[in-house]
Amino acid sequence: MSRDEMSALQGKRLHKVVDYVYHHTPFYRKKMQELGLLPSDIQTIEDITKLPFTTKQDLRDNYPFGLQAAPMSEIIRVHASTGTTGNPTIVGYTRKDIDIWSECMARCMTAYGVTSDDIVSVAYGYGLFTGGLGAHYGIENLGAAVVPTGTGNTEKHVRLIRDLGITGIACTPSYALYLAETMDKMGITKDQIHLRVGAFGAEPWTENMRKEIQERLGLKGFNLYGLSEIMGPCVSYECECQHGSHVNEDHFYPEIIDPATLERLPNGKQGELVFTTLTKEGMPVLRYRTRDLCSLMEGECACGRTNVRMTPIMGRSDDMLIIRGINVFPSQVESVVLSEPEFAPRYLLVVDRVNNLDTLEVQVEVRQEIFTEKMETLGAIDALEKKLANKLKSVLSISAKVKIKAPNTIERSQGKSKFVIDKRVLK
Ligand code: DLL
Questions:
Q1: In principle, which of 18, 147, 290, 295 could form an S-S bond with 121, CB 3.0–4.6 Å?
Q2: Which residue has its alpha carbon closest to ligand 1 atom 9?
Q3: Ligand 1 pocket, 225 CB below 6 A?
Q4: Which residue lies with its CA nearest to atom 29 of ligand 1?
């Protein structure tokens, strides 16, 4: 599609979605009324800058279904995003949403070179996370065979890759490295398997990681980007040129803003990525602030696709960490720590990568009142560590090693307190 045709289509769809949320989502009607805006004020895609932003906090404040526009009778699936303190973000999808999602995901897989001759294992988590089912439906839509391996049981997965002649894999880049490690341990070499394509995303990764994964698994690895609030995996994808990720911009309109001033920035400038869903029915969102930092690339790609590309995510404009594909905010850990009376509000998260798997250690000081030198010998420390680890697991769905510290032993910094040490160097 030419740029003019695309802009015209986006403008038409934007008007429609704005009119729809104005009449179906009290949250947006109120926001638009506060700005003195009517749906008729939004006619072209350029008018988008008149519209209000949406944040994760808005979704949380309106938990669970406050931003849902379609009636429950039309919702056929619900996912939830991890990574918030308190309420998770709930996203409901209509049948049309699921169809568009699988269509967009099939576009990604097509760009990676997957065809109906391929067998693809999906090793993203199945469940509330959008990775598993999102990739699954797209691959089926394309006509390739899906093997829904999910995460865990990696040795069995490696054997399936070998025995079934699996040619494609969808998983996080760090899981791909872990898979390579497991293969080494099992004495299986890349010549014994037939993997040729990898759809990697859900966390940041680098060119060096790509090289290592490609070398060790003998495949070509492609970027896959997405977020639950917008849809799930499928928002953008690399093509064979691997020069930026093409945005499915007929469904998800991207903008880059300055996170401090909220001004829109021109293509080429780095800032915070913002998306507006142009066709979604279940939970359409206007100008959703992803907090992901990147830039948009002008011009047609050598592959012939005309849809705009985004650079890899360079970081975030908030403090969210992605640990083993799970979004974790330090504030979440804090609220779990503080919900237990034994702990002082002094904690430190140490994130590392050991054997290509992310690790999280939570160090926390025990309160002065309950601390005694004897605690250790009585086994009380062990019990406390176990208790907190279990609670973190049940609240954050993440396994953490808990290290209980004596009062006043976690280093205090002079200025802003440092709650996180991220030792993972993404080389
Ligand atoms: O991670 C959806 C997804 C699943 C994408 C599978 C790709 C593959 P959330 O859990 O809502 O959704 O987390 C979204 O993850 O805002 C980014 O910070 C990060 N992220 C996702 N894909 C990439 C990527 C899924 N390719 C958040 N590169 C986003 C860097 C990524 N960061």
A1: 147
A2: 227
A3: yes
A4: 227
Model confidence pLDDT, tens digit, residues 173-213: 989 999 999 999 999 999 999 999 999 999 989 898 899 99
- Contact indicator for 405, 365 with CB cutoff of 8 Å: yes
User: Could you tell me the pTM of the whole model?
Assistant: 0.90
Atom of ligand 1 nearest to the CA of 204: 30
Cβ within 8 Å of residue 105, ≥6 positions away: 134, 135, 137, 138, 139, 141, 233, 234
**CA-wise closest residue to 10 among 197, 244, 255:** 255
Among 237, 281, 25, smallest CA distance to 134 is for: 237
Question: Computed over its alpha carbons, how large is the radius of gyration of the chain?
Answer: 23
Phi, psi of 202 (to 5 degrees): 80, -5
Provide the strand spans (E) within 58-175. Answer: 75-81, 89-94, 119-122, 145-147, 168-171
> Going by DSSP bridges, is the β-strand pair 296-297/321-323 parallel, antiparallel, or unpaired?
unpaired
Burial class (CB in 10 A: 0-12, 13-18, 19+), 299: exposed
| Dist. CA 281 → ligand 1 center (Å) | 22
Ligand 1 neighbourhood includes 124 CB (under 6 angstroms): yes
- Could you read off the pLDDT of 236-257 as tens digits, one per residue? 999 999 999 999 999 999 999 9
d(CA 372, CA 257): 52
Q: How far is CA 8 from the centre of its chain?
A: 30
- State how beta strands 321-323 and 357-366 pair: unpaired
| Euclidean distance between CA atoms 298 and 410, whole angstroms | 48
The tokens for 334 are 């804090």
Q: Is 131 in the pocket of ligand 1 (CB under 6 A)?
A: yes
* Ligand 1 nearest-atom number relative to CA 129: 10
- Residue 265 pLDDT grade (very low, low, confident, very high; cuts 50, 70, 90): very high
Q: Is the CB of 201 under 6 A from ligand 1?
A: yes
pLDDT digits 0-9 by tens, 330-345:
888 888 998 899 998 8
